Give the backbone structure.
Amino acid sequence: MSVQNWITRAVEASSTPPKLRDIQRFIDETFHEELAVDTLQNALDDLVKQDKLSCDSEGRYQTVKSTSKEDAVSRLFKS
């Protein structure tokens, strides 16, 4: 399983939007992997760029709801 998959699982499993340290703790406790903060931050940044996660001003991460096919088409051809 990749770091991005672990991060996604950590964010989805959290009852409130987690911060980086919360994600790091979840991965350590669940998958028994100790990951460096910079490794996690780089993966989080990549997931945000891919529009799979969003980050608020407090550094809390949430999954981005996927758009339906109809919404995607309407956004694409929106004038």
The chain has one domain: 3-76.
